[in-house]
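task queued by scheduler; priority normal; single chain, no ligands, no partner chains; default sampling; output format set to structure tokens
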Amino acid sequence: MTDLKGLLSRPVRDIKVNASSSAAKAMAMKPKYVRLLIERYGEALEKSSKEGHPFSFRVNVDPTGNAVAAPVEQVTSKENVEIDEENSAELDQALAAARDRGRIRAAEILSGKDMRSADELAELLHTTRVTINTKRQNGQLLGLDGAKRGFRFPVWQLDRNGKPYPELPALRERLGGPWAIFRFLVQRHDELDGLTGREVLERGQGEALLAAAESVGRGDFR
């Protein structure tokens, strides 16, 4: 197989091309466009080898020999398009069913024994409902939105002294929305020795927790 890096490092005039005399002369006169062609081929080959799908690119050449190359893109066959169209209705139904299951699961979580309303949490923290909602908005408290029951707050986000864990705002920066934070805290992670994020939080290992959250936020692992 041709070494593309080695090929690209050579002057274009040293690259032998089997072509007609006029074509070879034209290519010799436009070395930068020959290099462009080789580079696009290398990109397509690399993507195809990595992802297991065919990739294509297009080079438009005008009468003067100037060339413009389109970006490398995955080849979509007509057969695949037809199959996608046939299955679109079934896919829509499956997605709708998944959303329904998600809503049911969310309702179950929000009605759990470890959930508190804003008023209940305000009483635990000896503060007001307004303060609770302010802390929720700035990420100091984790509040999950329930369409019918309003925001619900996991009581386990309070440490043994009854204060919100100080890592909560940093988790918001790394993970985004409250449901993403909740999922991270209740799921087990190999990178945390099989512990849940909540367990690591309760052990006071905030540095390890935030490092794992940052990796999840980047998509390094799930």
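post-processing summary
- The chain has a mean pLDDT of 77.
- Residues 78-110 form the longest helix (33 residues).
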